[in-house]
Write a structure and sequence with these properties.
The complex is a heterodimer.
Chain A lengths: L1 H20 L8 H5 L5 H6 L1
Chain B lengths: L17 E3 L2 E3 L2 H12 L5 H4 L21 H7 E4 L3 E7 L6 H8 L8 E7 L4 E7 L4 H10 L19 H24 L7 H22 L1 H12 L6 H20 L7 H18 L19 E5 L5 E5 L8 E4 L9 E3 L4 E4 L1 H4 L5 E3 L4 E2 L4 E3 L3 E5 L7 H10 L10 H27 L1 H14 L3 H20 L2 E3 L2 H9 L2 E5 H5 E13 L3 H12 L4 H9 L9 E6 L3 E6 L2 E6 L1 H4 L9 E6 L2 E11 L1 H11 L4 E4 L7 H7 L6 E2 L4 H13 L4 E5 L5 H6 L2 E6 L11 E4 L6 H34 L5 H31 L2
Parallel strand pairs in B: 17-24, 17-26, 24-25, 26-27, 27-28
Antiparallel strand pairs in B: 1-2, 3-4, 4-6, 5-6, 7-8, 7-9, 9-15, 10-13, 10-15, 11-12, 11-14, 16-28, 18-23, 19-20, 20-21, 21-22, 22-23
Helix pairs in contact in B: 6-7, 6-10, 7-9, 7-10, 8-9, 9-10, 9-14, 10-15, 10-26, 13-14, 14-25, 15-16, 15-25, 15-26, 16-25, 18-19, 25-26
The chains are: A mainly alpha, B alpha+beta.
Chain lengths: 46, 786
């Protein structure tokens, strides 16, 4: 059990590092609005 | 949606807006952008955020021609091959989600733009373009849609973001969570039943804690070591003693097989400290407080060689006696002598005064002025790095380092450390007499519990909260130490031109007038069509005059306007343009029709609202005025409520900062507010230098804080927030000391268990965080939401 918890936690730590390195936390606004742009055609009907 | 606002940029509509497809626009630029977006099916732009557009500036088509020069081009490109070119551009007008939408869909407008990715926080875009596309074409396109690229800051943007801090935080968080999980059995006293398991989890904790000590806590240990070496004490010293005592004690326990020690508290402690640091280090990534003025200069300029041939050269390549051509609205890069006809120069960049000044042929023009009018030729008299402006800058920049304020919590730390050592000593003696075997244990427990974790968190959270709250109301501080300085301010020193006066609104003084009403109405109609500051002021002051249809309207940049109405020829503009003999200044306007004339003088308006609020709340005995001008307005200033013995006129930049030093030597804590480059020295000398800015992304001299001009009148409340932050800090400190005392009393009796330590540490920290946030927010609401 202990090892499992260590592995899981270590996995998350590694994941966090990886994400940071890839710039995940650099821009905390852009991506949140970017997803909305996908619905563009529907918006035109409003 | 507001009906009187431009559909594109949201500005108030003029009397005669431009109507296109059922929408109203304030100017042709806005309407053109709308049509362009509409054509390329990008009008969703207006649905994400209404009126989100930026008003496009008119630039000559060759404004960006310098980008096609190979040596300059390569400065901005990050990568290129035969098909494509990658570059990062800084686009300061990015401000909302619609901007991201538009920029990232730029390829719909021009298919040669292959990909755009906006980095919102830094206001930058990484752009990939077809290698067939010239950089100037891209820059022109961006400028056309209202995102003029800023080429000045671009050279070092390849610098990698420093992410070490996030790694440290992550490591500490990981260790904290994991160790707590593994220690859970211990908390409930289950560990003793299963020593093998307990040992295993203890070693595991030890393993997880090593990177926390060596990597995450590194900053605190190094800072404490440095402080001790330079025989000073800061808060990091008791923190480090606590950390090390905690760690060594736990290490010994683990190695002796006595359980996991306090590793969980240790990791949690570091984790909370780092969160505090992260919270206070949030800065305004897109604002720049240490901007060098040269970043506002053009990158390249037109040089005219002997064969009368024009070529574009980088500024650094200019030599003395080169003939250069500077066009309308361009900044003059070097001190030079005007060799073409008279022109007007806007020195607002240097002095804050936005009305242009007349310069005659043969006069010396200083670097930093902006040409208003037709392209002018001038002979370079000093290279850019030796100009008057550069000297001014260098002279004042390094003159006086700011009085370094000892951080409040560091002062507390000194007493704290003395008390702590005394306590440790006395309890050591006490237990030495009572029970020697307990002595070491109690001393170590004391050091652990006394570790000022909550104390260390008080300052970052209180000051960080204050910083954020002030940012919401238009005062952007460079860092949290400015909040601390703000608490002590007792004297406010103000610059006059551009600070107490509003450079964008004028008072009209009619010097002479023989026009009749109808003739005047024609002039107002002419003024409405021009963007010159004086025309705008005239139009704004006479909004109620009816629309007339003019013929043959012409604008000669920097000189004047002419038009016909009912077969009469109307001209307005500078004295020379109208044919007036008078020797006029840049703030005067002459009107002439059919030998009837008028002469209007424009004077900057006072920011009466802000001045009133400041005098009322702060009191005139704490207010000083330092001005570079002659004392012609002193009567008006006295009428506004300033006291005559606290005004100084005719000061040069050096004298301004000397005057502030004089105040400081009388024990005053000075806040200086200024706006121009001539204030750089004073901004640097004062405890806090605030640069007042009409437009956040325009030039601001280097300073400690930037204040948006429209929030100027709230300055007293902002100072109030700063003072209140100090009181909150004291309350938090009292709380954290209470926790420490409580912990100490337990430790003193030798009853400290890992469970109590594990509970006490986070609870005290969380109380502090909540307390500081709630108190500051409440105060903010009381002051500003009423």
């Amino acid at each position: 059990m202990l090892m499992v918890s260590l592995c899981i936690a270590a996995f998350f730590l590694g994941f966090f590092f990886w994400a940071t390195k890839n710039g995940q936390f650099d821009d905390d606004y852009g991506p949140s609005v970017r997803v909305l742009f996908e619905d563009e055609p529907n918006l035109k009907d409003e | 949606m507001k009906n009187n606002a431009c559909f594109h940029c949201g500005d108030t509509l003029p009397n005669k807006p431009i109507e296109t497809e059922g929408h109203s626009f304030c100017c042709n630029g806005c309407a053109n952008v709308y049509q362009l977006l509409n054509q390329h099916l990008l009008d969703a732009f207006y649905q994400y955020e209404p009126m989100a557009g930026s008003k496009p500036r008119n630039e000559r088509p060759d404004a960006y021609a310098f980008l096609d020069l190979e040596e300059l081009r390569s400065r901005y490109i990050t990568f290129q091959n035969e098909q494509r070119v990658h570059l990062n551009l800084s686009l300061p007008s990015i401000h909302c989600s619609s901007c991201i939408y538009l920029l990232e869909n730029l390829n719909k407008i021009n298919s040669k733009v292959l990909r755009v990715q906006v980095h919102f926080a830094r206001k930058q875009a990484s752009i990939v373009i077809d290698s067939k596309m010239a950089l100037s074409e891209l820059a022109n396109l961006l400028n056309y849609i209202g995102y003029p690229p800023d080429f000045s800051k671009n050279e070092n943007n390849s610098k990698k973001h420093d992410r070490t801090f996030l790694f440290q935080l992550g490591t500490a968080g990981f260790a904290f969570g994991s160790i707590m999980l593994w220690s859970t059995p211990d908390y409930f006293g289950l560990g003793k039943d299963n020593p093998g398991f307990r040992n295993f989890s203890a070693y595991l904790s030890l393993l997880a804690s090593i990177p926390v000590l060596l990597f995450s806590a590194r900053g605190y240990l190094i800072s404490a070591y440095k402080a001790i070496r330079s025989k000073a004490i800061n808060l990091d010293v008791p923190i480090s003693i606590g950390i090390l005592a905690l760690y060594l004690q736990s290490l010994l326990q683990i190695l002796n097989g006595q359980g996991a020690g306090y590793m969980d508290s240790f990791a949690g402690f570091i984790f909370f400290l780092l969160i505090g640091k992260w919270f206070q280090n949030i800065t305004y990534a897109s604002l720049s407080f240490d901007r060098d003025f040269t970043s506002f200069f053009p990158v390249a300029i037109q040089r005219i060689n002997k064969a009368n041939h024009k070529d574009i050269v980088p500024i650094e390549a200019l030599q003395i006696d080169d003939l250069i051509e500077v066009r309308n609205e361009e900044i003059i890069p070097c001190d030079s002598e005007l060799s073409s006809a008279n022109t007007y120069i806007d020195y607002s960049f240097v002095t804050g005064e936005s009305l242009p000044v007349l310069v005659n042929k043969g006069d010396l023009i200083y670097a930093g002025g902006k040409i208003q009018g037709v392209a002018s030729q001038m002979i370079v008299k000093a290279t850019s790095n030796r100009s008057h402006l550069t000297q001014l800058w260098n002279e004042t920049k390094n003159k006086t380092p700011k009085n370094q304020l000892i951080r409040y919590q560091d002062r507390i730390a000194q007493y704290f450390l003395i008390v702590l050592l005394l306590l440790a000593l006395s309890s050591g003696i006490f237990w030495c007499v009572v029970d020697k075997s307990q002595m070491m244990k109690v001393i170590v427990a004391l050091l652990i519990v006394a570790c000022p974790c909550a104390l260390a968190l008080s300052a970052p959270f209180t000051l960080g909260n204050a910083l954020r709250v002030l940012g919401k109301i238009g005062l952007y501080l460079k860092n949290v130490s400015v909040v601390e300085s703000l608490t002590a301010i007792d004297t406010i020193v103000l610059d006059k031109t551009g600070t107490l006066t509003d450079p964008n609104s004028y008072e009209l003084k009619i010097k002479s007038n023989s026009l009749n009403k109808d003739q005047f109405a024609v002039f107002v109609n002419m003024a409405r069509q021009s963007t010159h500051p004086l025309s705008r002021a005239l139009a704004l002051a006479n909004e109620d005059i009816d629309e007339l249809t003019l013929e043959d309207f012409q604008e000669i940049k920097g000189q004047g306007l002419s038009a016909s109405y009912q077969n009469q020829h109307f001209i307005m503009g500078s004295a020379a343009f109208v044919g007036n003999e008078q020797n006029a200044q840049g703030n005067e306007l002459f009107l002439n029709v059919d030998s009837q004339t008028a002469h209007i003088q424009f004077e900057s308006k006072w920011r009466t609202k802000a001045i009133g609020a400041i005098i009322e709340k702060i009191g005139k005995e704490h207010l000083y005025i330092l001005s570079g001008d002659q004392p012609k307005d002193s009567d008006q200033l006295i009428a506004l409520g300033f006291s005559p013995e606290r005004m100084y006129f005719g000061l040069n930049p050096g004298q301004k900062s000397d005057q502030i030093k004089k105040l400081q030597s009388n024990g005053r804590q000075v806040l200086f507010i200024g706006d121009g480059l001539n204030d750089v020295g004073a901004l640097g000398t004062a405890e806090i230098g605030i640069a007042l800015s009409e437009d956040m992304f325009r030039f601001t001299p280097s300073c400690d804080a930037i204040l948006e001009a429209k929030f100027f009148s709230q300055l007293p409340q902002m100072i109030e927030i700063g003072r209140y932050a100090k009181r909150v800090l004291q309350i938090c400190l009292a709380f954290s000391l209470l926790y420490n005392l409580f912990g100490l009393s337990i430790a003193f009796t030798g009853q400290l268990t890992p469970l109590i330590a594990a509970i006490l540490m986070p609870i005290s920290s969380i109380t502090i965080v909540i307390l500081s946030t709630v108190l500051i927010q409440l105060k903010f609401k009381r002051l500003f939401k009423s």
